[in-house]
Amino acid sequence: MKSETATPTGEFTLRLSATRRGARLARLLAVQQLHDWGVTGADAVELVVAELANNAVQHGWVPGRDFEVRMERGDDHVRVELSDARGERLPMAREPDEGGYGLLLVAALATAWGVKDRPVGKTVWATVPASVRRA
Closest Cα to residue 47, out of 74, 76, 68, 78? Predict the structure, then answer.
């Protein structure tokens, strides 16, 4: 019989290389964590993590620097934070000309999103509605 260990906190933090592979791993590992937490309807959270990780790799990349994914579980939401080393390149949700629908998607799926400064770089965050199954 396989025993399950409950996550001691509702927080998940992971540092990954700022590469396409790192962005893909961020999404996959975030989905696994959501599953472990018992979050239902995690598709919106998955899309937000995927978009923000992709943006961190494409627009926040600095040679030799990683990006960080952080998720915090609430009763009715998941807060997603993606931090990168590029503080001077701030994201903006605007009508795209070629591509660039990502932050419009984040804005549509999240109840709130924004950017905060860090000592090195920036953190883009989003609060995404979700529900947690109770044991």
Answer: 78
How is residue 125 written in tokens? 């965050």
Residues in the chain: 135
Instruction: List all residues 6 or more positions away from 121 whose beta carbon is below 8 Å from its beta carbon.
Output: 60, 62, 65, 83, 84, 85, 86, 87
Distance, in Å, from the CA atom of 107 to the CA atom of 67, rounded to the nearest integer, reads 21
CA dihedral 66, 122, 45, 132 (to 10 degrees): 100
- Rounded CA separation 131/39 (Å): 6
Q: What is the pTM of this model?
A: 0.85
Q: Give the residue ranges of DSSP H helices in 1-135.
A: 20-37, 43-59, 102-109
pLDDT (tens place) for every residue of the chain, 135 residues total: 433 444 446 999 999 999 999 999 999 999 999 999 999 878 999 999 999 999 999 888 788 889 999 999 998 999 999 999 877 766 666 665 556 677 889 999 999 999 999 898 999 999 999 887 765
CB-CB contact of 132 with 75 (8 Å): yes
